[in-house]
Amino acid sequence: MKYTVWQEREKCIGCGACASVCDKFWEMDSDGKSKLKGSKKKGENFELIIDEKDLSCNKEAAEKCPVNIIHIKDEKGKKLI
Description:
Layout: E1 2-7, H1 17-21, E2 26-28, E3 34-36, E4 40-42, E5 45-51, H2 55-64, E6 70-74
Antiparallel strand pairs: 1-5, 1-6, 2-3, 4-5
């Protein structure tokens, strides 16, 4: 199964929690905000399609985000977080 991870990047406060728990997909950018590696801008958000093997890491990043700007949905559109 595939999943879509998306980030409301403008709302990022730059705490670095996502990058610390899932550095394969998240890094801190030069503007002090986190960046979803390999993502594409879609509207105001950044999105990336991931495989099931990468779900756990990204789910932990979303759960650790203190401002809840990281979201994940499955390929049927069901929001997981």
